[in-house]
Specification:
The protein has 432 residues and is an alpha/beta fold. 39% of the residues lie in helices and 19% in strands. This is AAA+ ATPase domain-containing protein.
Length: 432
């Protein structure tokens, strides 16, 4: 029976069984079966067992690994090295990744032997391996003769630098972060909302601009004077008053110069520290944490101690993150632990209240713009209670358009307001 036939008969057996039988066969027949392991590949390439070689290694996160894999793929395409396995005796593996609508096929488990004179003056073997579980971290290893360890380190540093600076698919983009078997990153469309689109008091923008200066126009001054370029802003206020809209405006202004990271509640509750660590690869960053009361809570109420600990660590702890602006929002500041709202964590706390009568009229005018109709917005604004939000006003106009089309009048909008269905009431009844 030849080697190929023997291997085909063993394919259904576990790897350990296959390897034991293969070694037994080699001992009995004094022959070697056609198989390759990561260790034997390195041995053949560099002429020594891996345990006698030097190995420089780096472990990176899921999306940092994709960038590293893309850099290695470019080297493979350029130099056409001999390839081998990186996991047991499996064939070199390429995996498809969807990046902003483009599908990239990148090495996820492979070894590549680069002869001297290709990527370095010394012969080197580069291995890349992606975890298929947990956080989907990546390991990249460079093997060399101990005398050429410096060359291995240089290549690994070059791979990492290129991944961060030139092959970083997310730097300067707006990305959403979710948590599902590790951090999941998705490129988002930058918001088109601008300041003039919102009816917001000027002092709100002035306070935000002051905090932005620490990362933009005043960054050099802050560094020279020994101050941090990390800033945190908490925007508080009832639902519908524009907290998210304000954050989107700032995001639209900064994206490109900054990487904008929108963190959802699951990632915020369970992996906030990992998100902030990624900012080291993304350069200046804006991190948006919406509705943090959903996952931070108050220790006095027995709420979410681990999430709070991570939050305190990244905002004012042992781990320092420069050139990071955090904009968080909450509907209920009283629900937050007192430690989360100290000035050392948030440099500014901005409160957005309900619009006053004059601003209600301005918001109604904005939503009615473009309609060939005459509506007395001042009269409508005057009849509304003080706890009406901008979102409520939008719903009033929306319901009026659904009921009457574009033929709106003051009386018709007044009818919608009196109806009261634009302001949902809390659900009543029992939960099953």
């Amino acid at each position: 029976m030849d080697d190929i036939s023997m291997q085909s008969r063993l394919l259904g057996e576990p790897h350990d069984v296959r390897r034991a039988l293969q070694l037994l066969g080699e001992l009995l027949t004094d022959t070697a079966m056609i198989t390759e392991s990561p260790e034997s590949f390195v041995w053949r390439a560099l002429g020594a067992h891996p345990t006698t070689l030097a190995c420089e290694t780096i472990t990176t996160t899921a999306w940092g690994g994709i960038s590293l894999s893309a850099v290695l793929n470019d080297l493979i395409m350029k130099h056409d090295p001999r390839l081998g396995p990186a996991v047991s005796d499996e064939a070199p593996t390429w995996t498809q990744f969807d990046i902003d609508g483009e599908t990239l096929s990148l090495p996820s488990a492979a070894s590549a032997h680069f002869p001297a004179g290709t990527v370095s003056s010394a012969p080197l073997v580069v291995q890349i391996e992606r975890e298929d579980y947990g956080a989907f971290a990546w390991d990249v290893r460079v093997f060399s003769d101990p005398a050429h360890r410096a060359e291995a380190r240089t290549l690994l540093d070059d791979l990492n630098r290129t991944a961060v600076e030139e092959k970083n698919f997310y730097r300067g983009r707006m990305v959403g972060v979710d948590l599902a078997m590790g951090l999941q990153w998705k490129i988002l469309e930058p918001p088109r909302l601008q300041r003039q689109d919102l009816i917001i008091k000027p002092d709100v923008w002035a306070e935000l601009d002051l905090n932005l200066a620490a990362l933009t126009g005043r960054a050099d001054v802050m560094r020279e004077r020994g101050f941090s370029t990390r800033r945190g802003v908490l925007i508080a206020g009832p639902p519908g008053v524009g907290k998210s809209a304000v954050a989107r405006v700032i995001a639209g202004e900064l994206v490109g110069r900054f990487t904008v990271i929108v963190v959802d509640a699951r990632a915020g509750a369970n992996a906030l520290r990992d998100v902030y660590r990624e900012t080291e690869r993304f350069g200046p960053a804006l991190i948006i944490l919406e509705d943090i009361d959903l996952y931070l809570g108050d220790r006095r109420q027995g709420d979410r101690g681990s999430a709070l600990a991570d939050f305190l660590s990244v905002m004012d702890g042992a781990e320092e993150y420069e050139e990071v602006l955090t904009i968080a929002s909450t509907n209920d500041p009283s629900a937050l632990d007192a430690a989360a709202t100290r000035s050392a964590r948030f440099d500014s706390i901005i409160t957005l209240g309900y619009p006053d009568q004059a601003d209600r009229a301005k918001i109604l005018t904005r939503y009615l713009a473009g309609l060939e109709t005459l509506v007395d917005v001042d009269a409508i604004a005057a009849m509304l209670p003080d706890n009406v939000s901008g979102a409520d006003l939008r719903e009033i106009v929306r319901r009026a358009l659904l009921a009457y089309g574009e033929d709106l009048t003051t009386d018709r909008i007044r009818t919608v307001v009196k109806d009261g269905r634009w302001q949902p009431e809390p659900l009543q009844g029992s939960y099953l």
